[in-house]
Inverse folding.
């Protein structure tokens, strides 16, 4: 990716269009695959556990691109495009703002329609799972021994048990509407906040719907991975807590510092204009001593 960005920034190079297109494609593919992966979690993955507790995958790569998973891929791609376009609206030049405004609006509409369609599809046609054993049962902590049953239609069980969880999808839709309204009004800052809220709340909605499942199995229900049987040991979790307590504040401080340093630096549609300006200034500085010498000789 770094090589492609260098090609994108090189002036006069025949590889510059290739670098720009390749960087665009490489950026779009992961954004879409995240949604495809999340969609397969709702459908369940075809894996089982053998007698040695080893996982065996019974599907194919092409089998993961099912219609519902592809829909979530479109939703994921649109939400990241909307966030990126609204950020360019906030930081970009006038030419970039006009283009990014159109992209942000279209991506927001796709996200709004797609998210609503996915929720209706889940409720109407997707079969969910539920744990039959108690949380305190030792079987929950043993992969392959959990009692998993179908019957959680549309993965709506947690929303029925915890009514406050319904706020997550509602806030996701509200954030998208806020972002679209801000795009129309030209308020880039509120558009960024709205699209960011939509992304966070959509991920929270997925987590609340799937809990306690992490990777459900569609061929051997008892092999499904949950937060209980996929967790590490107590000592490992304690060490991870200590490391996260130290490293996470450092990461947040670096991210905030980088954002504050670059908040007043507008994005440029092309580096060519800036480079040309520097060349002209340098030529003027080199020519000024010669002009003074001509005046003294005269």
């Amino acid at each position: 990716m770094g090589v492609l960005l260098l090609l994108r920034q090189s002036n006069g190079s025949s590889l510059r269009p290739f670098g720009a297109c390749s960087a665009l494609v490489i950026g779009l593919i992961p954004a879409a695959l995240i949604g495809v992966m999340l969609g397969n979690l709702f459908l369940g993955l075809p894996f089982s556990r053998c007698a040695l507790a080893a996982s065996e995958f019974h599907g194919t790569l092409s089998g993961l691109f099912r219609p519902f998973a592809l829909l979530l891929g479109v939703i994921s791609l649109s939400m990241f495009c909307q966030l990126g376009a609204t950020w360019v609206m906030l930081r970009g030049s006038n030419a970039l703002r006009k283009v990014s405004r159109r992209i942000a609006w279209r991506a927001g509409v796709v996200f709004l329609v797609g998210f609503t369609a996915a929720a209706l599809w889940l409720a109407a046609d997707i079969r969910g799972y539920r744990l039959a054993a108690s949380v305190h049962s030792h079987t929950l902590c043993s992969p392959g021994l959990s009692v998993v049953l179908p019957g959680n239609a549309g993965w709506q069980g947690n929303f029925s048990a915890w009514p406050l969880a319904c706020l997550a999808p509602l806030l996701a839709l509200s954030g998208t509407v806020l972002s679209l309204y801000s795009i129309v009004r030209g308020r880039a800052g509120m558009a960024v906040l709205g699209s960011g809220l939509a992304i966070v709340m959509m991920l929270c909605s997925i987590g609340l719907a799937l809990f306690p499942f992490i990777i459900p199995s569609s061929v051997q229900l008892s092999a499904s991975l949950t937060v209980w049987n996929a967790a590490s040991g107590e000592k490992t979790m304690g060490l991870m807590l200590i490391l996260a307590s130290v490293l996470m504040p450092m990461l947040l401080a670096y991210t905030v510092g980088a954002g504050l340093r670059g908040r007043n630096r507008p994005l440029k549609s092309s580096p060519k204009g800036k480079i040309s300006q520097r060349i002209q200034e340098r030529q003027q500085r080199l020519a000024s001593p010669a002009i003074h010498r001509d005046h003294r000789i005269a």
Remarks:
- The chain is about 65% helix and 5% strand.
- Residues 1-7, 269-276 have pLDDT under 50 and may be disordered.
- Strands lie at 47-49, 55-57, 127-131, 148-153, 213-215, 225-226.
